[in-house]
Amino acid sequence: MAAKIAPSMLSSDFANLATEAERMVRLGADWLHMDIMDGHFVPNLTIGAPVIESLRKHTKAYLDCHLMVTNPSDYVEPLAKAGASGFTFHIEATKEYWQELIQSIKSRGMRPGVALKPGTPVEEVFSLVEAENPVELVLVMTVEPGFGGQKFMPEMMDKVRTLRKKYPALDIEVDGGLGPSTIDAAASAGANCIVAGSSVFGAPEPGQVIHILRKSVEQSQENN
């Protein structure tokens, strides 16, 4: 699976979001990771469809939307109209109706993914990957969702290893505390989609960090 480096725009300068997005793409980002939080599923409150719509006018980049919300089905239509590319919902919020949700996401031209919190067993997403109408990405949270800048949880790499062994062709994304000091653990476990916020935006040379993240993923794939 191709390496996809997705700077988390939550760590960018929100007053200059379009400029920041353009800068990240120019420096080598594959995706732009958009954290959508409702203040209920997680304590923090961030952005919604209006911001995605505004940003879409300034970039053709893949907008990788991570929905940390209690009712993700309420967001499908607005985000599709806004121009979202990927729609990743949390298994903890959708245990009863995920089949309908996946269908709804796909029918509106977005790519469905499922995320799981650190305390959620990886087995809970197997049925979504193996379904007749499956998700196309699994996001393993390597911190508790809701805030940026947290410390990477290396024990979550067991989930990544399990998923990669079981689903060799699956896009496996990791989010939380990823940077030059932690990327090798994630890459060697089998993650190919890397979300990085403060390690990219807080670096003197963000492009160099993006390069390091990509190189680690590609080297791990070559070694395996």
Beta percentage is 15-25%
Task: Give the CATH class.
Answer: Alpha Beta
Radius of gyration: 16 Å
What is the chain-wise order of helices and strands? Answer: EHEHEHEHEHEHEHEHH
**Helix content range:** 25-40%
Count the DSSP helices: 9
What composes the largest sheet? 8 strands, parallel
Structural class: alpha/beta
The count of DSSP E runs of length 2 or more, i.e. the number of strands, is 8
State the fourth-level CATH superfamily: Aldolase class I
Protein architecture, described:
The chain has one domain: TIM Barrel (Alpha-Beta Barrel). The chain is of the alpha/beta class and 224 residues long. Helix 2 (49-56) runs parallel beside helix 3 (76-82). The termini are close together. It has an eight-stranded parallel beta sheet. The model has no long low-confidence stretch (mean pLDDT 96). The longest helix has 18 residues, at 206-223. The protein has nine helices and eight strands.
Brief characterization of the structure:
With 224 residues, the chain is of the alpha/beta class. It is built from 9 helices and 8 strands.
Question: What is the element layout, followed by pairings?
Answer:
Elements: E1 4-7, H1 17-26, E2 31-37, H2 49-56, E3 62-68, H3 76-82, E4 86-90, H4 98-107, E5 111-116, H5 126-130, E6 137-141, H6 157-166, E7 171-175, H7 183-189, E8 193-196, H8 198-201, H9 206-223
Parallel strand pairs: 1-8, 2-3, 3-4, 4-5, 5-6, 6-7, 7-8
Helix pairs in contact: 2-3, 7-9
List keywords for this structure.
19% strand, TIM Barrel, 9 helices, 8 strands, alpha/beta, 224 residues, eight-stranded parallel sheet, 35% helix
